């Protein structure tokens, strides 16, 4: 991430607090989740402890087996950002619209135990949110600055989200124009992510993403390559981690 992102003379937009910054999507963050009798009877709620145990088991699997997750863990350790899964990763009940998130106040990744139910989904959430954790630790992001937020969302989408299959499913590319359209997928994902956690307009989110896009899109640390959706990409990234100076 270019240092210019951190030198932008932009003040926090509303206050020095993080209240209302997407935490309504994670009710357990504020202690506001309490399943109603209706939800228990008709929507299968009341099984949060069982969901949490299953989620934590799948998280442990991904921490040990996922090449991208292991690259990120190694990069964090090498950068002096120690991570303890029991402290920094939490399985919680969330709004149905999200699979996970990063809480910069607690420096904690949230895995949505009720929506991220497969190992593949949890691996994707961990990889994406670990980029935010890495950026927060190594680049000292101010998440109140919309351009800082846009930059880390660009990087997370670029490095972990916009592979060929996901890009095609979202209508941004085909096998014949993947390279050209990959940037469109990254921009779309970054704008959507900014809108999910900030009370700004679509135009404001798009403007912030466009302003920092070139330099943040070019920043491939610590994975070193864009994952295009093929298994070999994961293996190559893992094999090349030493080139980035990180131990796995």
Key structural traits:
single chain, 248 residues, mainly alpha, 2 domains
Strand order of the largest sheet: 1-3-2
Largest sheet: 3 strands, mixed
Number of strands: 3
Runs with pLDDT <50, length 5+? 1-16, 165-173
Helix and strand sequence:
HHHHHEEEHHHHHH
Roughly what percent helix? 40-55%
Mean pLDDT: 79
Number of helices: 11
Globular, elongated, flat, extended or rod-shaped: what is the shape?
globular
Structural class: mainly alpha
Number of domains: 2
Cα separation of the termini: 22 Å
What percent of residues are in strands?
A: 5-15%
Rg, Cα atoms, Å: 18 Å
EC number: 3.4.24.-
Organism: Cinara cedri
InterPro entries: Peptidase_M76_ATP23
GO biological process, one term: mitochondrial protein processing
